Amino acid sequence: MTATEDTHWLLGCWRLHWAEPELEILPDTRMEFQLDGQLIYTICIEDKQAIFELVYRLDGSELRTYHPDGGHATAARVSMEHDGRLQLDIDGRHAWFRREHLM
After folding, report:
1. Rounded mean pLDDT for each run of 10 residues along the chain, 103 residues in total
2. Pairing assessment for the beta strands 48-59 and 62-66 based on DSSP bridges
3. Looking at CB atoms within 10 Å, which of 21, 76, 85, 94 has the fewest?
4. What b-and-e string marks burial along 23-49, b requiring 16 or more CB atoms within 10 Å of the CB?
5. Phi and psi for 58 in degrees, rounded to 5?
6. Which conformational region is residue 16 in: left (phi greater than 0), alpha (psi within -120 to 50 degrees), or beta?
7. In 3D, which of 14, 3, 2 has the Cα closest to residue 81?
8. What is the C-alpha R_g of the chain?
9. pTM for the whole thing?
10. Domain hosting residue 50, numbered range
11. Is the CB of residue 31 less than 8 Å from the CB of residue 79?
């Protein structure tokens, strides 16, 4: 699966800024959207990283992700806030991510 030009605004690395507690997204969660439709999802647990290689597709404002082995799949509404944050709406619960920039 390949990301289309419509996803160019989504490409790159995003780090969790804040999430509603019900989502149970861990601090320092990071998402890297690549042009080829790959999503590298990284979480930190007790100073160790767990990295998940997922596939993503953007259908209008709906972001669909799944594990290529047929495992976990999810869907969320995605939008860009006026301040540049990426907002995910997962069943009415929200999380915001900030773009990471190279130093």
Report:
1. 65 97 95 96 93 94 93 92 97 97 71
2. antiparallel
3. 21
4. bebeeebbbbbeeebbbebbbeeeeee
5. -110, 120
6. beta
7. 14
8. 13
9. 0.88
10. 5-99
11. no
Q: What is the CATH number of the domain that holds 36?
A: 2.40.128.280
For residue 5, the model assigns a pLDDT of 47
**Per-residue pLDDT, 103:** 61
- What Å distances lie between residue 62 and 7, 48, 51, 74, 103, CA to CA? 11, 31, 23, 10, 31
Decide: 37 and 48 in contact? Cβ < 8 Å. no
Phi–psi pair at 22, nearest 5 degrees: -60, -25
**Rounded to 5 degrees, what are φ and ψ at 5?**
-60, -25
Residue 48 tokens read as 């160790």
